[in-house]
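Possible race condition, two jobs.
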Amino acid sequence: MSVKNTSFCLLAGLVFTACGKQVYEKTQDGVVVKVKQNSSADVSKVRLQALGNKLIRVSATPDKEFDDRQSLIIVPQKNKTPFTVEENDSAVVLATSMVRASVQKNSGKVTFTDLDGNRILAEDQNGGKTFSPIEVEGKKQYTVRQVFDSEPDEAFYGLGQHQADEFNYKGKNEELFQYNTKVSVPVIISNKNYGILWDSY
């Protein structure tokens, strides 16, 4: 995981196009946005799921469908969070009572704002999420790179217990693996009052 001065690497995306028309599908807990792919490694679909009034899960895939394996760290939600879905010329927007998440229909870029439109977090304009095909033990997989815009005065904390005197990970690199007294936790918190959980095992 890499945190740079102007952008923050992490998770994302999904998109797809049918018959030349960009569409979305509303689900029980959110929305799936289909975006046009330029290559087989581009995002095919982006899924937004409302897990709480301040909690939206973002999933992405370059494939036609999402992987159906259950998350190892997300607890199934019993209580449904109320949400609305809107579409405009450029984006599909999922909104709860406290936060809005929009997906650009032509790129799959995801942006989070408060209800007044103030930006909380946004993917980088020049390649927010990329998938690179790899093969692991004979199985075709992807490596994922996620980049978010970051304010110059932003600081990032978390990632677990590591043997380096680093507290603010802005501009730093940290490999997330478990070893002896090194304990990795894929959660990072910003001093801008939001956090990100990386759910990709």
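Job #2 (started ~2 s after job #1):
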Amino acid sequence: MKRTNDIVVPVRRKRSFYGHGIPGVNLDGLAGKLIVVEGADGSGRSTQIAKLVGWLEGSGHATVQVGLKRSSLVSDELSQAQEGNILSRTTLSLFYATDFADQLENVILPALRAGFIVLADRYIYTLMARDLVRGFHEPWLKNLYGIALEPDAVFYLTVDPEELVQRNLAKNAALDYWESGMDLGLSRDMFDCFVKYQTEMQATFRRMQDSYGFTFVDGNRSAETIHAELQKKISAVLAGK
């Protein structure tokens, strides 16, 4: 914030990429806002995104939603490849990176140019955390995702892994192979593997916080309480605070 003749004027944070970025992009022309909601399956991400869309659009803001495996380029192929549970770690990583790059260039950047609020149901952070847990070198990942635009705010919903198990079973009556980290061989029991994997994912997110400035939000509370907190924080972002 700065003062001009005793009038408080919001100072817009300068846009930047995390690394080399995408050539030819005029960052000053991106008038919209990029808001990211991170968290594991069962953390309430989708519920919160839906609530935020309703609130923002009801307040007169145009919104666009993006997320993992939503690229028109590779999303179907990625889903099909995952069904057999035979993808190598590198192939899976590059599949997701391609999915992200396509959405960034063809959805996120155009929407921001048009002044939309882009709500991301997960961003590069989940992809990087997954790969770090699987033994990838962080410098390689930072270079891979150097094309990514820095968001205006990132909220990470934390939920106890044991609670995540119950939520996923209640919703799907099963646990997902990849979200359980079964490819890592942490345990032969899927329930135990899920808890161990999600515990490591949360620890990785906390280690990444210093570099990426996540805001941790307690996801063990009611959806209404969480929404009220996100609404307050995002209102401050929109006001330029």
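The chain has one domain: 23-238.
Logs attached separately.
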